[in-house]
Specification:
Blueprint (H helix, E strand, L loop, with lengths): L1 E3 L2 E3 L32 E2 L3 E2 L5 E4 L10 H18 L21 E4 L4 E5 L5 E6 L2 E2 L2 H8 L13 E4 L5 H16 L10 H17 L2 H8 L1 H4 L6 H10 L3 E5 L4 H12 L20 E4 L15 E4 L6 E5 L2 E2 L21 E4 L2 H8 L7 E5 L2 H12 L2 E5 L3 H10 L1 H29 L5 H34 L10 E2 L2 E2 L1 H8 L4 E3 L13 E2 L7 H7 L2
Parallel strand pairs: 5-11, 5-17, 11-12, 12-16, 17-18, 18-21
Antiparallel strand pairs: 1-2, 3-21, 4-22, 6-7, 6-10, 7-8, 8-9, 13-14, 13-16, 14-15, 19-20
Helix pairs in contact: 1-3, 1-4, 3-4, 12-13
């Protein structure tokens, strides 16, 4: 048996799938078979599903996976337009285009210097660009490596690109940096790199406030959102297994209803026909307009309102239970559930949600989301919820790792060979320097030293070139998402390891495993243990 990041599975190759070529939901007759490696659920901290009472989901970028080639381009174009029309940037920006494949998550923007950085888990800068210009090793060290006190790389001077939605603004920032450097006369002197980033953020906020993006998505969801046939079977399996299922999203009810209809409603949506509420059968509680991350603070005193799903009207509640409206005697409370609350709400806080779900302990909740600060960090750090992080990029990365596993072994061997040669060189230099060798022995040692140094350089070049090719297989500019050189990347450490109990590529992967599964992590190893076990 092989253990891959805490998931035990037979060594099966990249496609552990059924005869149809599609991984089947666990509860189906074809389920319970080998799972495609890109759809595994990986475990950082143990989660026993038998102890879980409620399973919750975010909507945007969790249940609803947006297409970067259309949605991110839409966001980019809207932001550029706001920069020109509302913030006075040159009209030629309107001719710019967006390469949605260029940026990756886990990068850090240096707002004051106009740099884009990729760091390892220790926050050492390993790759740095000024705009789109690669910084030399000397420039990189001079800027980030020669300080008495190490930078924390936090706000307000830095911006963390940890969400998929922020990739477009990162790309636009790099474009503006290059534009300012090459055309200083076209950008006001008052607009330094820091101010330009602030303007980008202001333009993004304007796009959200005027509703342009969401209206475009609502008009044609299929153009901007990936269809995922695995979501409904997964939700049905959870409900049948006795879990309370909830949805918590910052999107308001009108947009939530459109998106969830596309994902879980009738197969074909006709814009002229009324939206169906059939998708609500898969959820016990839906909270829209949640204002995460504030939602996760129990002391947040925001009122919770019930939502009339037909009109969208908000109804006052007493901690989730509907209240009669003064002056509106015609408003009737639902006869079919006099002692229970509505199903759809807006606002509130996590305390309200716990009451609605009858949850006695926060550890009984598994929350599935994509946003480290809005979802995973707060729910894990503040509440103690169990968490599952959705990382869409993971599927491609894991499959490539499988295909390149022999190359990775060769890289490890080359690195070990470099270490061995360097040890021999150091020993010979010490012997020659300490005059331990004389005459013929000294000449022989010097000849061997010269040969080893030539060999070391050859192996070094071979190793570095092979490593570069290896990383470019994942991404031409930034390499592996989860690695920076031989270290875990800042994204892997900060976003995935620290706060996600489980992580996977798609939310529907939860339906490929038993709803009673005990997810167990692999054993932690320290460097000294690796050395012992490799003997």
């Amino acid at each position: 048996m092989d253990t891959i990041s805490g998931v035990a599975s037979e060594r099966q190759g990249p496609n552990g799938v059924g005869k149809s070529g599609i991984s089947c939901v666990w509860a189906s007759p074809e389920g319970g078979q080998k799972i495609e490696i890109g759809k595994h659920i990986f475990c950082n901290r143990a989660v026993n599903m038998k102890n879980i009472v409620a399973v919750g989901f975010d909507m945007d970028y969790t249940l609803a996976q947006y297409k970067p080639e259309t949605f991110e381009s839409l966001a980019y174009n809207g932001t550029v337009k706001k920069l020109v029309v509302n913030l006075g940037y040159p009209n030629e920006l309107l001719d710019w285009s967006f390469d949605w494949t260029y940026m990756v998550r886990g990068l850090v923007l240096d707002k004051r210097r106009g740099n884009i950085l990729k760091m390892d888990r220790h926050k050492y800068v390993k790759v740095a660009y000024h705009g789109f210009r690669l910084l030399s090793k000397e420039e990189k060290v001079a800027t980030y490596g020669n300080t008495l006190v190490r930078d924390a790389f936090d706000e307000p001077d830095y911006a963390l690109i940890d969400t998929l939605f922020s990739l477009a603004e990162a790309y636009l920032f790099a474009q503006l940096v290059d534009f300012k450097d090459n055309n200083p006369e076209k950008i006001s002197e008052q607009k330094d790199y820091f101010r330009m980033y602030r303007d980008v953020r202001a333009a993004v906020d304007l796009c959200h406030r005027d509703g342009t993006l969401k209206q475009m998505v609502a008009n044609d969801p299929r153009m901007y959102i990936n269809e995922d046939k695995s979501i409904v079977p997964m939700l049905q399996m959870l409900k049948t297994s006795g879990f309370a299922v909830f949805l918590v999203t910052n999107s308001l009810w009108d947009y939530t209803n459109v998106v969830m209809n596309f994902l879980c409603g009738p197969q074909k949506l006709d814009g002229s026909s009324p939206l169906s509420l059939d998708w609500l059968q898969h959820f016990d509680v839906v909270i829209s307009g949640s204002a995460k991350p504030k939602f996760f603070h129990d002391e947040n005193r925001t009122n919770i309102f019930a939502v009339d799903t037909d009109s969208g009207m908000l109804i006052n509640t007493d901690n989730g239970s509907p209240m009669a409206q003064v002056g509106f005697p015609s408003l009737e409370l639902p006869d079919q559930m006099p002692d229970t609350s509505y199903k759809v709400y807006q606002g509130g806080n996590v305390g309200h949600l716990h009451k609605l779900l009858n949850v006695e302990s926060s550890s009984q909740v598994l929350y599935v989301g994509d946003h480290i600060y809005g979802d995973i960090l707060r729910s894990k750090k503040v509440l103690g919820w169990r968490t599952m992080l959705v990382v869409p990029e993971l599927e491609k990365e894991v499959k490539l790792l499988w295909l390149l596993r022999d190359t990775r072994k060769q890289l490890i061997m080359l690195r070990s060979e470099r270490d061995h040669i360097e040890d021999q060189i150091h020993h010979l230099k010490w012997s020659l320097k300490g005059e331990c060798l004389e005459g013929h022995d000294a000449k022989k040692a010097q000849s061997k030293l010269d040969s080893l140094e030539v060999q070391r350089e050859r192996v070094r070049v071979t190793h570095q070139e092979a490593q570069k090719v290896f990383h470019e297989k994942f991404h031409k500019v930034w390499g592996q998402l989860m690695k920076t050189g031989y270290q875990n990347s800042r994204f892997a450490h900060q976003v995935v390891e620290r706060f996600a109990c489980l992580y996977t590529s798609q939310v529907g992967n939860l339906g490929l495993y038993s709803p009673a599964k005990y997810y167990r992590p692999s054993e932690d190893f320290m460097p000294h243990e690796f050395d012992v076990f490799s003997l």
